[in-house]
Amino acid sequence: MDVATPARNLRPPVSLRTADYDYTLPDDLIARHPAEQRDASRMLVLLRDTQRIEHRRFAEFPAYLREGDLVVLNDTRVIPARAFSDDRKIELLFLEQIAAPAAEDRVTWKCLVKPGRKMRLGALVHVGGVAGVVRGIEPEGERIIEFLDAVDLEKHGEIPLPPYLARRPEPADSERYQTVFAREAGAVAAPTAGLHFTPEMLARMAHAFVTLHVGVGTFRSVLVDDLAAHRMHAERFSISPETATACNTARRLVAVGTTSARVLETLGRPFYATGGSTDIFIHPPYEPRAVGALLTNFHLPQSTLLMLVSAFAGREFVLRAYGEAIRGRYRFYSYGDCTLIV
């Protein structure tokens, strides 16, 4: 059993070195398919006040809620954003639809493309029989493509599974890579902590929804040695009047996923109905000001999401917990098990 320490006032010095947020994960612990049942995952609980770790099942999550808690979830819906050109030579990831600069019947998208050398300014591409022209190239390589008509992604696209799954989508992914409460289309990655919930589980707790459309930046590595030099990608979010009111009256906010946490921490109390984009980068020594507890999945080494979790529980405690999860053969990443920080 772990020895308790009064950690809240004895935190070790904060590190801003990217290399200090690293760990080694055996490849066979990557969950490449979902569990048979959504709520059948394991749950590693990190108790911050005592620095203890508990091994539980996700079905026990309600037992960690207090009177007056509000569980806040992200209701974004993943779109079938990955598509191929009609000649199969170009792979496109449709990131965000933007305003068309010309005729109203034209639709402009910001896309990631592979290979980029074939998609220079003025290059022509056809997707689902619709012609598109590269009108611009963003600093990080995204292409601004103007299509002559709407591309039917429901017919010609597929669910953009995370690259570390190393497989093409299967029929089951259309359902299982969506939360049961997904309703606002616009994400290219799922808010994976929400994948564990069933309608029956949600009915047992006070809950509310925010919307943050998860972008491809969630998978991007931190390429600088010093966290202070890293610039986060922006993601679109919104919060309704009903959710704002519920958050303001709750005793404690329990964020489901790093995406919900980023919305809540961007706004802070008092909450109000609004929308926009956030590029908040949460990492030590940041002290959360809105979120009191966090449910999340396991995250990639040296990722901004692992750094966010470290801001909630401390880098050393998080890495110790990850080490225990590896020894305990937990399943990692999008389709894997979860952690609860209280």
| Fraction of residues in helix | 10-25%
Radius of gyration: 21 Å
The CATH topology assignment of the largest domain is: QueA-like
Structural class estimated from helices and strands: alpha/beta
CATH class (first level) name of the largest domain: Alpha Beta
Mean pLDDT comes to: 93
For the termini, the CA-CA separation is: 18 Å
Number of helices: 7
Number of domains: 2
Range of strand content: 25-35%
For the report, how would you describe the main beta sheet?
A: 9 strands, mixed
Which shape, going by the Cα principal axes?
globular
Would you identify the CATH H-level superfamily of the largest domain? QueA-like
Give the total of beta strands.
17
How are the strands ordered across the major sheet? Answer: 2-1-17-16-14-3-12-13-15
Description:
- With 342 residues, this protein is an alpha/beta fold.
- It has two domains: 7-78 and 161-341, QueA-like, CATH 3.40.1780.10; 84-156, Beta Barrel (Thrombin, subunit H), CATH 2.40.10.
- It is 16% helix and 27% strand.
- It is built from seven helices and 17 strands.
- It has helices at 153-156, 173-176, 199-202, 241-249, 258-267, 304-313, 315-327, and strands spanning 42-47, 52-57, 69-74, 76-78, 82-84, 91-98, 107-114, 124-127, 130-137, 143-147, 184-187, 207-212, 235-239, 252-256, 274-278, 293-297, 338-341.
- The strands form three sheets. A nine-stranded mixed sheet has the order 2-1-17-16-14-3-12-13-15, covered by helices on one side.
- Helix 6 packs across helix 7 (315-327).
- It is globular and about 60 Å long.
